[in-house]
Amino acid sequence: MNLTPRIEPQRLTVSVWLDHTPGENKLELMDGEALYGGEERDKLLMALLYNIGFEHLLKILPLESKQLLTQLCQKGTQNTVDASDDPG
Question: Which residue ranges make up each domain of the chain?
Answer without folding.
Answer: 14-85
